[in-house]
Design goal:
71% helix; 8 helices; 0% strand; mainly alpha
Length: 192
């Protein structure tokens, strides 16, 4: 047997072993951490975290990803529509003073921490609830996009409540996973 045949045989044996390990993990509902080793080869500390936390994190990652995309798109939408309606001085002229003060405090805290600044846009220093307040305060800039102001407020309130466990490392109950999916659909339906 030449070297190429040995390599082919090794690859085939490895593939069979991987399939058997996948089957074993599924049947016994255990995780042998092979995926973690592949995903985080340089992060040997990751395996020191409790397997329950690693499993929760993996399940919660998909909800975080949805909320990340949603929140980023809402921030972008606010900037776009406020610019269109009020021009590039909208932040100074149309954002409530309390929100501007809170943003300045957040920026100052971040600068004093020595960490990399998260953004050059002030909108990125607002809380999710403050985003809703900016829209509510300036509804005329958003009324062509959103069909109903009351529905907007309800959906934003629900999203803000659902954001809490996602942002603060708590697993979502099955009902809340379903509620998140429905509320995100409601968000898009509100704009149709």
């Amino acid at each position: 047997m030449d070297v190429e045949d040995k390599i082919r045989l090794f690859v085939l044996a490895n593939s069979i072993a991987e399939k058997e390990l996948d089957k074993l993990e599924e049947e016994s509902d255990c995780n042998l951490c092979r995926d973690i080793i592949r995903e985080y080869p340089q992060k040997d500390y990751y395996l020191q975290f409790d397997s329950i936390f690693r499993k929760e994190a993996k399940e919660m990652a998909r909800h975080y990803e949805v909320f990340y995309c949603l929140e980023k798109s809402i921030r972008s939408l606010v900037v776009q529509l406020m610019n269109e309606k009020y021009g590039n001085r909208w932040w100074d002229e149309k954002v409530p003073e309390e929100i501007k003060k809170n943003v300045e405090l957040n920026i100052k805290r971040e600068e004093e921490s020595g960490f990399t600044q998260r953004s050059e846009l002030k909108i990125d220093y607002t809380t999710f609830g403050e985003l809703g307040s900016i829209v509510n305060t300036n509804w005329e800039a958003f009324s062509d996009l959103f069909r109903n102001e009351r529905a907007f407020r309800k959906i934003m309130t629900n999203l803000n409540l659902l954001r809490g466990p996602i942002a603060h490392c708590c697993p979502l109950a099955a009902d809340e996973v379903a509620r998140l999916e429905i509320t995100v659909k409601d968000w898009f339906r509100l704009m149709s």
